[in-house]
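tool=predict chain=A
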Amino acid sequence: MDKYIETALPLAGINEAAIWERAGRAGHPANLHMWWGRSPIGSSLAALSAAMLNFSEETAPEDMAILANAASGDLDSLEALRVRLKERGAPPTVWDPFAGFGGIPIAAGKLGLKSAANDLNPVAAMLTRAAVDIPARFAGLEPVHPGEHGRVTYSGAEGLAEDVRFYGEWMENQALKRLAEVYPQTESGEIPMAWLWVRTVKCPNPACHCRIPLGSSYVLSKSRTSKYWAEPVAEGNAIRFEIREGDCPADKESNKITGNGAVFRCPVCGEATTDEYIKKMGAAHELGAEMMAVVTNTSGVKAFHVPDKDQTEAANVKKPEDIPPGTIPANAHWFSPPGFGLAEFADLFTDRQLLMLSTFSDLVKEAQDMAASAALAAGMSHTGGSLEAGGTGALAYGQAVGVYLAFVVDKMADYNSSMCSWRTSTGNVRCTFGRQAIPMVWTFAEGNPFSNVSGNFKTMLKSVVESVEQLGFGAPAAVTQDNAVTMEYPQNVLVCTELPYYRDIGYADLSDFFYIWLRRGLKETYPQMFSPMVTSKDEVSTVSTYYGTSREDAENKYRAELEAVCGKLYCCSSSEYPALLFYCFRKSDLESMRHGGTGRNESAWEFILQSLFSVGFAVTALWPMRSEPASEKADSTRVLIVARKGDDRESQITRRGFINTLKRELPGRIQRLLTGYVSEEDKLLSFMGQGLRIFSQFKTVLNADGSVMCAHDALQIIYQECRNEIAQRTETAPDGDGATKSNGVKSRMQ
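tool=predict ok
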């Protein structure tokens, strides 16, 4: 019987909820730790529910209202869905082999569904365990710390969260004691919130012995009420900085010469560097850095000070001997620092930052031991094994507290590297990952982790604690770290996963920035997971095209592995419920359908559909499941492919027969689809999903020459027919019909 996910959805409401969720809020599980590809929990929850509920004409309005409200976080609607799903009998296990940050298993847990989740990347696998596995083990427990408890009763992971807060505050106090000398107050007794630095290099003029400041910006503050800038002043062959108040003259904002590359002018002799020269100096480890300003914030008023001797000497610490190892890929597509000699991930941090992060990481183990001892004193079992072994006793509990504290340190690393720039409009530190890459930063900000600057320990701890408080209210999940291409899959499951996108982000390489610190704090807790020095680079991906591998070889490997995954997903999928497969639809895919072609060079979208058909799946719906607002500028759209085992398909039909069937059946299917509200920009792909369902009724569609119709050709036919349907409905829709009338808005996908 048809499910809602195959028939009609309140798509606009579900997408609105997902977009709102992406904006972030206190307590959201995503605040545990940064991850680049996050499956929205609300829309995943709605999709899973719609995949299990039978479509009914009579109850469709009520059912779809519940789906939309549950996606938006309405607890009454969520409970109604849980009851409805429970009434169906033994529910299936939800299987996500590419779990990422864990959004899909979190959604399954909220519905009361058991789930199995996997990811090859250890950072992603750790995040998923922290979101759905660990909280379920310790749900409902009171905190074990010796301090005064904050609640009378505890549910979910609220007790665990309170212990994370308690031992996190202990960590901060201990770190402050150990690091007090390297984070001194100013002469006037103020606590610095940040130090602003500029990288330097020896002047290429042999007659000039100046170290050129590579000042991409000397502006310190440009808010309406507070304007400051730093001016490099030459004294012989030396440079010092003076703080000026007011608007910075345009010719004083930077000594970087306009254009591409690292080209700067010496303020002493006027000689200009070249990009090649600075890269050569970087490779020879001749890049330095000089403090430009000390920033304080007293009673909400920021002030900028010339660095004195105490401040500069405090920053001149000895680099820790046991810094985390890890080489940055020499891949300018995502990483520009290696081109300037910063070849190791540790090179992205100042020596003081390395000392600070190492100190906090080492305190994680001490906090774990304290929490485990307190748990034992509170009556928890002294047996049961470690967290990695599935333990639920005192040892595992202490380690669980340590996992979330290690996340706090990782979040601090994002705001405490020398790749963090200074936000002149608000007077705060930007994080390292402003985008999915690490570009070179010439003037950078070093925040004080014990102040109120962005990225400080207290703020990061608060965000993690608030997220943990919201966990532990769902069904447990079994989480593994394995290669989805080669591992064994659970059987008879409801598949719901984000398939690896084509030419997407190099998660494995980027995640090493965080992995090296997680490994330092948790390698004794999860010795198997954190035994490698860096993450595995065997993810299903075409990113190897950026490492010297030919595009053809990278694409062939990606396609072969993804095709193998499709076959494994078919074999493990339940016959009762459709599989839910998220993938990326790009503008180029639309152009391919719009302008035709032979299909010999199929797009990634055509390839994934053809792969699903080849292994036996029938595609029964497409839904643009957005995580950000529709935009003309956006290159891609996140789309849910709904696919069933096609065991009952008709054997074959001719091309003409298929076209006739499409013309006859498509209008009725679209009319039923529009019982749920679909936004104008989402109609084309949603309508095409119904066209693909008609195509999928047949195992084979034969062209006039006897060849088998491929996905490329089918998409062209379906695209044109859906365009015709949209045009007809736009012309005939009555005023006020929100489901069918365009209201003069041109679809962004047309």
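Residues 188-307+424-431 form one domain. The chain has 20 helices and 19 strands.
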